[in-house]
Amino acid sequence: MAGNDGKGSTKKNSQLILRLDRDERDSFVELCKELDTSAAREIRRFIRGFMKEHAED
Fold this sequence. Notes:
Blueprint: H1 22-34, H2 39-53
């Protein structure tokens, strides 16, 4: 399949809405920028790691 680099589908079709403190959110977004990443990417990475860590064998 053209454009598929083996990481699975990159088409996002769902949202997760979070409510958090504005200062905490702003600090997180700023840190992500400093680390040349995005907040969304880091949240997705956390979710995948969390699911892998808690997956049943």
